């Protein structure tokens, strides 16, 4: 996985966990579509570091 995708997934996951925002709200904050939020998180689940974030939630 590309490093920028990994970083984006971690930033989005961290944001959702910290704010409890919905996918729609998160998409607005990051200026991306809801489907992009879903895709980034689905891809990001396999990245190193994401597992740590998911476990803390």
Unreliable residue stretches:
none
Distance between the termini: 23 Å
Overall geometry comes to globular
β-strand percent reads under 5%
Q: Which value, in Å, is the CA radius of gyration?
A: 10 Å
Overall pLDDT level:
81
| Residue share in helix | over 70%
The SSE order reads HHHH
Total number of helices = 4
> What's the main sheet like?
none
Domain module count: 1
Number of strands: 0
Structural class: mainly alpha
Topology of this structure?
Blueprint: H1 3-19, H2 23-30, H3 34-44, H4 50-56
Helix pairs in contact: 1-3, 2-3
Write up what this structure looks like.
The chain has one domain (3-56). The protein has four helices and no strands. The protein has helices at 3-19, 23-30, 34-44, 50-56. The model has no long low-confidence stretch (mean pLDDT 81). By secondary structure, it is mainly α.
Please sum up the structure shown.
With 57 residues, the chain is mainly α. It has 4 helices and no strands.
Keywords for this entry:
0% strand, 57 residues, mainly alpha
């Amino acid at each position: 996985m590309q490093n920028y995708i990994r970083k984006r997934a971690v930033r989005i996951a961290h944001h959702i966990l910290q704010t409890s925002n919905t996918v729609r709200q998160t998409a607005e904050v990051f200026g991306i579509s809801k489907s992009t939020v879903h895709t980034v998180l689905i891809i990001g689940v396999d990245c190193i570091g994401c597992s740590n974030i998911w476990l803390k939630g």
